[in-house]
Design a protein that fits this description.
- It is elongated, with a radius of gyration of 25 Å.
- Helices cover 73% and strands 0% of the residues.
- It has a domain of 34 residues.
- The chain starts with 13 loop residues before the first helix and ends with a helix.
């Protein structure tokens, strides 16, 4: 038989709460940085395995030519 427990209030001094929130924010920034590096590493591995590279210049030229052909065709 499980009992549910709910927290209704926390007694904590204001400046301790502020310090807790600052530490929590800094930890979140570090965690996001680590996750970004992990996703970049995974992307690099996938790129190396598939042998494809991202060519931004060609992609931008394709989108640009489609945009201009649509804009000036009217």
């Amino acid at each position: 038989m499980k009992e549910e427990i709910g927290i209704t209030s926390i007694k904590m001094p204001f400046w301790n709460m502020v310090w807790f929130i600052i530490k929590w924010t800094l930890a979140s920034i570090v965690a996001l940085f680590i996750l970004a590096m992990l996703f970049i590493a995974i992307g690099m591995v996938i790129t190396m395995i598939t042998g494809e590279s991202l060519n931004i210049d060609t992609t931008m030229n394709q989108f640009s030519s489609h945009f201009h052909s649509y804009k000036f065709s009217k």
